[in-house]
Automatic annotation (TrEMBL):
Stated family: Belongs to the RNA methyltransferase TrmD family.
Protein name: tRNA (guanine-N(1)-)-methyltransferase
Organism of derivation: Sphaerimonospora thailandensis
Domain tRNA methyltransferase TRMD/TRM10-type, residue spans: 1-234
Bilayer-spanning residue ranges: none
Gene from which this protein is expressed: trmD
Molecular function (Gene Ontology), one example: tRNA (guanine(37)-N1)-methyltransferase activity
Predominant cellular place of this UniProt entry's protein: cytoplasm
Description of how the protein assembles with itself and partners: Homodimer.
EC top class named in words: transferase
Lineage: Bacteria, Bacillati, Actinomycetota, Actinomycetes, Streptosporangiales
NCBIfam families linked to this entry: PRK00026.1 (NF000648), trmD (TIGR00088)
Keywords: Cytoplasm, Methyltransferase, S-adenosyl-L-methionine, Transferase, tRNA processing
GO biological process: tRNA N1-guanine methylation
Keyword tRNA processing tagged: yes
Amino acid sequence: MRVDIISIFPEYFAPLDVSLVGKARERGILEIRLHQLRDWTRDVHKTVDDTPYGGGPGMVMKPEIWGEAIDAVIAQAGPAASPRMIVPTPSGRPFTQETAIEFAEEPWLLFTPARYEGIDSRVAAEYGSRLRVDEVSIGDYVLAGGEAAVLVIVEAVGRLLPGVLGNARSVADDSFAPGPMANLLEGPVYTKPPVWRGREVPEILLSGHHGKIARWRRDQALRRTLEKRPELVARLDPAGLDKDDRKILTEFEAPCGIPFRAGPDDVAN
């Protein structure tokens, strides 16, 4: 995958040289190119912003600078290829694990993180007419700039690329991953020693009984989700719930306020 990032602070992305993303770059799985937006300015002060039309506080990033920068980056690959353009903004659609999986299937992503009050809205409209443009939010809060959001998205996407993780099952077991654990938080995890400061690892994990361990992990994921993110329970697919799942959901209905009802086949459990 190729990733291009245009920013007035390209040095912000030094963390992309370390850990899993850094190793993916070394192995050629992920190619990241950084571009200084100010390289496309034409005044001595390298100005990238101006006052907003209609008045109001703050400054707005100029469309002509962004336009020249984006055109130049796209032109590097020739007319046969085009990137999917990602614009981090609090007004965008929520970035989720599902979005990360979607982006990981793209061969080329172009990120345009803004500063100040954002980029002139005509830029997204212009490129939305000829590229796939996604305005994406990593949360309901405002940052000083979009660079931190790009770091989050690139790491979430990069770890999904084939060959990045040493164990492919790690992706399948992630919180929010599609499949049996979809919309569930991952349960507690443990490693050696079996006893630490008087606290023991749950006996079931030492049993070697893979079926019982899988059931325990599923139960713990359900309980943790109900305790910490009960709103996620509404997203569970009823068709994917077995009797043990329903029993736990029913137990937690009163304290969590979850509108769940056991089916007729679950009463005996």
